[in-house]
Every structure is written in structure tokens, then in C-alpha cells.
Amino acid sequence: MSSFMDTKIEFLKGVGPAKARLLNEELSIQTYHDLIHYFPFRYEDRSQFHTIDQIGPDSENVQIKGVLDRVEVVGGARKQRLTAVFRDPTGQIELIWFKGVKWMKSKLKLGIPYIVYGKPSLFQTKFSISHPEIEIMTPANEVGKKTMLPVYSTTEKLKRKFVDSKAIAKLQLELISTRGFSVVEIVDKAVLNEMNLVDLTTALRNIHFPTDALVKNKALERLKFDELFFIQLKIFREKSDQKEVHKGIIFQKSHLVHEFYEKHIPFELTGSQKQVIKEIYSDLQSGYQMNRLLQGDVGSGKTITAFVCMLIAIGSGFQTTIMAPTEILAIQHYQGLSEYCDKLGLTIRLITGSTKKSDRKKYLDELVSGEMNILVGTHALIENDVQFNRLGLAVIDEQHRFGVAQRAKLWQKNKHVYPHVLVMTATPIPRTLAMTLYGDLEVSTIRELPKGRKPIKTSHLYDSSRLKLFGFIQREIDLGRQVYIVYPLIEESSTLDYKDLMDGYESISRAFPKVPLSILHGRMKAKDKDFEMDRFVRGEAKIMVATTVIEVGVNVPNASVMVIENAERFGLSQLHQLRGRVGRGADQSYCILMTKKKISKEARARIGCMVATTDGFEIAEKDLELRGPGDLMGTQQSGLLDLKVADLTTDGVLLKRARLLAERIIADDPELTSPAHARMSRHLNKNQIATLKWSAIS
Ligand code: ADP
Ligand code: MG
């Protein structure tokens, strides 16, 4: 059934074939449905007024009423600008124009009331607004406009063709006013009532043209609910028919674990590690296939925990594998575990992209024959020719670096029955989020760090103290230690960030002419990256200048200093991950967060949190708290789920309600055959709901 919303966009008044092509190419808008789901990313709230004394360093756009006091042209002929003092009963602010100076000057009149709209910025101690919108106050606009104006993101190409935010707003208005405008409701009535949600037509109308913030929030809540609810519904429906399908191998108690505990383990396991091993062991005996997520802070000792579980599998005559996202990490696992394997008489091998052909062939033979007990590797080990004899347990380290397809392939490595799967991550996330992200995974958590770790000393320095920083780095290097210096490269394509990194590299080379440096960033070829990293791992390079590519998993115990440049630009969890690269050896380690003097309130809070604590879970909680609802970037994780409006870090309450509801509905009506669930059932069947399937093969 083709509905109104399936109509091609070119049939909308004001669009036509050329503009339709453009909208399609630039914004993937092909149909009415696509257009109406292209939401504004913010609004200009012109219904409210501010007073000048309310303006602060974190002010977004403000709308103020007042009069002009002084209007003058300043600066020489080349840098001419127009400045005006704008005053209300609470204070004054400067307005500045760099363009159209003469024309503006002729327009502005002293002494009559104006309405000004724009974003204040702070220069030294004074606030000003450049190129504000300004209009004479009239009885009509004095009370504020009746609506919030939607602002849409567009591309440079669209703007050149005059499809700017205003033009998109016009198209939305046109669509909404088209005769026959209708939206197929996807949530059944009882659910809307119970959750107190507006219907979809209202939500879509109001997300574009809300009359006020309350109306907008109601619309947004409905749209967020849809995203979160259908994911949950899908997860529960699949879960209900999965349990029987995936029978699991049952492992027996193993002498190997005993031997390892009694004779070889170099330290006492923490209580947390023991608890997690117990949880996993009970899965491994349950008769069902295990799909478990192991989360634990950086340095909490996930590897050895996983190794003990691998011994359980090996003790029952099965093979195991551990897959890491990078070659460096795979090598580190291989080297670390080899030591134990030698003592236990187990065969462990490493396969990566750079394994020699002849070695690879030999290993693959050992694998098929069952001679090999543990295979460590990168994604090279999921290639088709890698065939196990009896794979019993697959461990995946730092899972978020792998694609879903890569994981699924690993599952198929045992022909008879799916192997048990343990995925590990150092990104601590609160429980509800974990349940949504890894819908079908059980979650275990290592909460404590091994005893005797020296907490990393973290400090905040301003750019002006760079000499002091360099002195400190030199002293640590003289003591034989190594140093990371990390630059933000938020987007791999950002040329400006890239330049920052290269400038930094140059100034460090100049400051430390005799010290061998490594450099690492995403634009380098894989081979060069490995080479540079390897030099640092082996201790030849003393300073590693890098982007966040080093974020995950790298273990260089001799590195004792982590310097993070422009730290204000990093999120909390990222700062924490980076800091986790040091403090892995016996030495006291340091993390130094460099910023300019003036940073936003939020950035200051993030940095304050980093200085105050090294506990990853505490930091995760703080992170949730600090991210306002206005954080449109969302989380890295929600990117995986393809969420457009919901944000897993801030919509926890809604998520929980949606989850409980979905669980109850599926418990009552597993196949969604009841007429009361007809709309939701139809939507679920008709649409690809992106859930993350870690455990099953599609
Ligand atoms: P992560 O959880 O970040 O992967 P690792 O498994 O790499 O952490 O462990 C970090 C370091 O801590 C390793 O050198 C490991 O040998 C050590 N370690 C792990 N568990 C303990 C423990 N219970 N007591 C002391 N050291 C431990
Ligand atoms: Mg690790």
C-alpha cells in the first residue's frame, strides 16, 4: 500500500526535479516521509526575551529589548567596523557590524526601542553581539513571536543553490499544509494513553513548528519514545524465541584452572575478577550458549579473567580464540598469554595480517587438527580458511571497534554448535544503557582495580605554562620513562585539527631536539602506523605524538606521562580512556590536561572531574549528568544504533519505561498477534529496526 508519505519529493510544490535531485544527493531526502523526518537540530526561540544582565559566557542566542546609545564607525579604512551601545534597564552590550557598515549606520536610530537577536560572545571582559538581527519594536513583536523557528542543517552545496535552513522550513510548512497530509500511526492507542504521548501526526507537525518549548518537548518525547520502544520490542521478541535455538556446550570443572591458580598465577585475583569468573562459569554449564559482555575499567584485569575462562573450555577439550581490534593489541595478548601457556603446556598461536604465509599455513593445520589450544589474532582470524577443530569459547576484546558482520562470522567458526562468546569493553556504561546497546547480552562488571595501583596524578595546566610542562617531560625522560602527547582529531577529515597536530609535532621536535619521537595519526598507512607504534612499544621512541588513535588498549607500562592538548575538546569518557594508557607500570604516572585559559563551564566541569577522580564508573555517571539534553552529538554508542533524536545518556528514564512496557507486551503477546498491538506489529514487520545483534547470525 502506497501512502501519502511515499510520494516523491519532486511533487511537492516548490521542489521540482532539479531540487529533488539535490535534496536526495545531499540529505538523502527522496520522499515526503524523508522530508518530514528531517528534523531541525535547534530552534530560535523568539517567544522569550532576555535582559542584558542574564547574559553569561554560556549564553546561546538571546533576544533583548532596548535602545541604542551611541553608534560609531571605528577602525581605519581597511578594518572599518560599526559599533553601537545597546542598553536596557539592566545593563549594556556592544553590537558590532563588520560588513555593510555604511548602510547599517544610515538605518540605526538613537533613542527608539529595538529588538535585538543574536549570540553574545565574550571579548576580554565585555560581551558583544556581532551582526545581530535588529528590528524596531512594534506592538506586534513586542510580546514576542508566537513560534519557535526551526533551524535545519544544510550543506555548502545546498546553500549555494539557495536551499538554506529557511528554505527547508518553507518546504516543511508546504508539506504540512498540503491537502491530504496524513501520517500512518505506528503505536497503538492503549500505549499512547498509558505513556501519555501525543499522536504521530501531531508530533511530526510540532517538531517542525512548535508554538513553545513545552509543545516541542512533547513532540520530541513521542519521537524519542518510538526510537527506543521499537528497539526494545524487537529485542524482546527475538529473545523470546532464541533461548531454545542456541543450545550451548557444557564445560566440566577443569584441572587446568586449578593448576593455574595453585602454581602459576602471578598475583591474587581481585574479588571482582573472581565474581565475574563465577558468573561466566555458571553460563558455561547452563546448557545455553553464553553471550556475555564483560565491562571493566582500563587496567582492571580483564585479560586474565578471560584467560581463566578459556582454561575452563580448554580443560573440556575445546579450543578458544581471542580477537583484538589492532595488531599491536593482538601481539600484546599473545606475548602476555604465551608466558602462562608455556607453563601449562598449552599451544598458543598468533595470526594477523602480517603473519608469514608459511607460518599461517602451519598454524591453520594445527588449528584444524585440534593441536592448537588458543588462537590470538586480529580480524584476520575470521577469514574463511581459518577453521577450528572444536571452538568452544570466543573472546572479543574492545568489541566496539569491530563491526557486527565481523563478529557474526566468528560465531560460525564452530559448525556443530555456536561457541560461547565473551565480549570485553573498557567503556563503562550504566546498566540500562548496556541492556539497550547489547540487547541480547548478559552483563558482568569488574568493579575494583588490582591492589597496590598508584592512582594517576592528574593536573590541569594552561597553555601559558608550556615551559613548565616541557621541563617536566624532560625530567621524566631522563628517568627513563616515556610520554604520550595527544591532540584532538575529532573528525578524521578536519584539516584544521590535522594542522594542530603537525604544528605540535614540530614544536616538540624543536623543544626536544635529542629525543627520538614517534608520530601516529589516522591518515597514515597501516604499515607506517605499526612501525611508529612499534618504535614506541620497544622504547626506542621516548615521546609519542598522536591523535586519539591510541585510545584503545595499548599497553606500554614504561609510559608514565599522558599529556592531552586542547583537553577542553574531549568528552569525559575519552579523556578517561586516554589517561588509562599510563599508570600501567610500577612508576608513579601523570596525566596533564592542557587548555587555554578561557573554556566553557562544561569543559571546566569535565576537567575538574578528571582531576578529582580516577574511577571510571564515577566518571561515567558524571558524564551522564553533565551532558545536557542539548547535546546533539549523542554518544558514540547511539551512533551504532542509528538513533536520530533519542540520546542514551540523557533519556535513561524514558528508555526504562519503554523497556518495561516492551517487556510486558511481549510477555503477554509474544507474536504480537492481538488486535490491540496491530499497529506496532505492522510497523515492526515492515521496517528495519536497527538493533545490535551481537549474538545471532542474521
Ligand atoms: P584491562 O582490563 O585494561 O584489559 P589488563 O588485563 O591489561 O587490563 O590488566 C592490566 C594489568 O594488570 C596487567 O599487567 C595484568 O597482568 C595486571 N593484573 C590483572 N589482574 C591483576 C590482579 N588481580 N592483581 C595484580 N595485577 C593484576
Ligand atoms: Mg585490555
UniProtKB/TrEMBL annotation:
Gene Ontology biological-process annotations: DNA recombination; DNA repair
The protein's enzyme class: isomerase
Protein EC: 5.6.2.4
UniProt key word NADP: no
SMART domains, per the entry: DEXDc (SM00487), HELICc (SM00490)
Residues of the Helicase C-terminal domain: 471-625
NCBIfam families assigned: PRK10917.1-3, PRK10917.2-2, recG
Family of the protein in this entry: Belongs to the helicase family. RecG subfamily.
Described purpose of this protein according to its UniProt entry: Plays a critical role in recombination and DNA repair. Helps process Holliday junction intermediates to mature products by catalyzing branch migration. Has replication fork regression activity, unwinds stalled or blocked replication forks to make a HJ that can be resolved. Has a DNA unwinding activity characteristic of a DNA helicase with 3'-5' polarity.
Name of the featured protein: ATP-dependent DNA helicase RecG
